[in-house]
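Fig. S4 source data, part A: sequence.
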Amino acid sequence: MASKRFKKLPENTKKLTSDSFEKLLPLIKQNCTTKFDESIDLNIHINNKQKKNEINIRTAVNLPGGTGKKVKVAVVCEENKSQEAKDAGADIVGADEFVEKIKGGDIDFEKLICTPGMMIKLSKLGKILGPKGLMPNPKLGSVTNDLKKAVTDSKSGQVEIRNDKDGNIGVSIGKKSFEDQKLVKNFNAIIDALEKEKTNNTLKGDLIKQTFMTSTMGVSYKVKLEKNI
């Protein structure tokens, strides 16, 4: 049963004509009627079912306006690199003993970074880290010797975009309290990343079928992109 707050929100917004992100943003913020700072979220449906193969997108995007979320970052590295990770702001830093804790199910972090030299030890924990989306990945910049950059990116506004089997991508691009321009920049960063993925996959036709935006507890609006991607 819908709450009194939700009943006051506009109805059937998905049936409205699509409009630009910039024009829809004030409506989305207006619908943020809860007491907490709601997230502004995108749901993008891509054309991942191709004739010859299936397109699976998984990449990391640095949002220029940040995410407004605090991310707890853990690093698995050699002893001589632990100070670098700590100085960069990592919340948890460890080597073999830390790997054993993870193996035992002690996962008190939201992002895991690993040096290439330690990756062989983490690779054995695929059944534990994989389902949680925590396994470090070179493509996402989370398997690296440049721990300062990896930790800083994770802390300052990096998000992962990946599609499910039905071609849906869900990603948060900031908070209601953000200035509109910050949210516009973050939105454009996501779209630019998908355009790059389309080029990398040499995809013919449009990659993005449709795009919707909403707030955490709001209603959804269809977004009109400036160009076909």
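Fig. S4 source data, part B ends here. The two ends are 38 Å apart (CA to CA).
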